[in-house]
Amino acid sequence: MSVDLAIIGLGYVGLPLAQQAAQSGVSVVGFDVNEAMVSSLNGGRSHIDDLSDDDIVEMLSHNFTASTDENVLAAADTIVICVPTPLSIDGEPDLGAVTGATTTIARHLRPGQLVVLESTTYPGTTDEVVRPLLEQGGLVAGRDFHLAFSPERVDPGNPTYGIANTPKVVGGHTPECTKVATAFYGRFIETVVPSKGTREAEMTKLLENTYRHINIALVNEMAQFCHEMDIDLWEVIRNAATKPFGFQAFYPGPGVGGHCIPIDPNYLSYKVRATLGRAFQFVELAQSINLQMPAYVVERVADLLNDEGKALRGSTVLLLGVTYKPNIADQRESPATPLAQLLISKGVDLIFHDPHVETWTPDGVPVRRADDLDEALRTADISVLLQNHRQYDLEAIASTARKLFDTKGATDDPYVSRL
């Protein structure tokens, strides 16, 4: 039986895409090699923040099913690749999941199918890596089947923008590929933006997140010297944001996290070095600044404890919020992880609290969870706000904590130290 869409990878990108397509009447099969995940989905259970169990049940009642059988790909008119693209141990792009998914598709590719890569990667991947693998069986992209790239723009936990109302950029291997892919996404996404080609679409995502990466690094560095100069940077940013043109507010923090900002600029930097033989200096400088923010937070924590006549070693430090962004459970690339490693290495008695996280083992080291937040605030030598979840009553936290260090600029209490 034929289906409209097969999605490879049922994580934070693939599953919301499947939901929106299914809700719009598109028949969808999700393919993933994780048997436990597929079984859980078919049982009506979600594994991501943005979709509830009820959402999965609703999808199953309409046009969605999950499978570990790669033969379902042959029956799909369109196949979208939504697999992870992490960095290797050496900090270079790891396209293992992309090549694995593409090789699987190639075994079932048939004339007339549309194949779209959504996984974030460096410019040229669709044409230089994906296309040759798909063409090994004799079919030719742009003639026998359609090939395109469309950058995912999923923002977990965003209550305003989801799959349907976030404009979708699409770039095809040929103009006809772009036309076919644009028509496909237009079935369930409000605004589809045709792009010149696959490289332009690939670069679009990297520009978006490199822009954020660099501007976050700018304010992170400013936070450090503003502290030394006794200038309230949060007030400075508020002032600058009143200008109705020429300025966009970015805010400092304990580091950058998530599936995009710490990763995507490195893909672009890698491609520039590999192709042109030179450094992308903005990206590499921004990476250096953002990566050292956890160490700067430790330095500030040590100074604040020292002001109380206490050493960092042996002090109890409570970390509040260990996810990479507020109001979700996602801990991918959270700066709380390197911060915890540094604190533990310095002999701190570390505890944490997060309304979305029951157990936390940064790099395999279990950290004790504070089940009684008030008691933990009263007894910890210092509490560090890393993520401002909506469940946190900041006024109560500020009044209860023995000492509070706010890395998010979320409090206005004059007795609270801020980044």
**The CATH C-level class name of the largest domain:** Alpha Beta
What is the strand content? 5-15%
What count of helical segments does DSSP give? 14
CATH level-four homologous superfamily name of the largest domain: NAD(P)-binding Rossmann-like Domain
Poorly predicted segments: none
- Rg is 23 Å
- Give the CATH architecture of the largest domain: 3-Layer(aba) Sandwich
Helix content: 25-40%
What is the makeup of the main sheet?
8 strands, mixed
Tally of structural domains: 2
Helix- and strand-based class? alpha/beta
Mean pLDDT: 95
Order of helices and strands: EHEHHEEHEHEEHEHHHHHEHEEHEHEE
Number of β-strand runs: 14
Q: Which term fits the overall shape?
A: globular
What is the terminal-to-terminal distance?
Answer: 58 Å
Topology-level CATH name of the largest domain: Rossmann fold
Identify the strand order in the major beta sheet: 3-2-1-4-5-6-7-8
Question: What key phrases describe this protein's structure?
Answer:
38% helix; Rossmann fold; 2 domains; six-stranded parallel sheet; eight-stranded mixed sheet; 419 residues; alpha/beta
Task: Give an overview in words.
Helix 4 (96-106) packs parallel to helix 5 (125-134) and helix 11 (293-307) crosses helix 12. This protein has helices spanning 14-23, 35-42, 53-61, 96-106, 125-134, 175-185, 198-228, 233-240, 264-276, 281-291, 293-307, 336-345, 373-379, 394-400, and strands spanning 3-8, 28-31, 64-67, 76-81, 114-117, 146-149, 168-172, 192-195, 316-320, 349-353, 368-369, 382-385, 404-406, 417-418. The chain contains 14 helices and 14 strands. The strands form 2 sheets. An 8-stranded mixed beta sheet has the order 3-2-1-4-5-6-7-8, sandwiched between helices. Strands 11-10-9-12-13-14 form a 6-stranded parallel beta sheet, with helices on both faces. The protein is 38% helix and 14% strand. By secondary structure, it is an alpha/beta fold. The chain folds into 2 domains: 3-198, 3-Layer(aba) Sandwich (Rossmann fold); 221-418, 3-Layer(aba) Sandwich (Rossmann fold). Strand 12 (382-385), helix 14 and strand 13 (404-406) form a beta-alpha-beta unit.
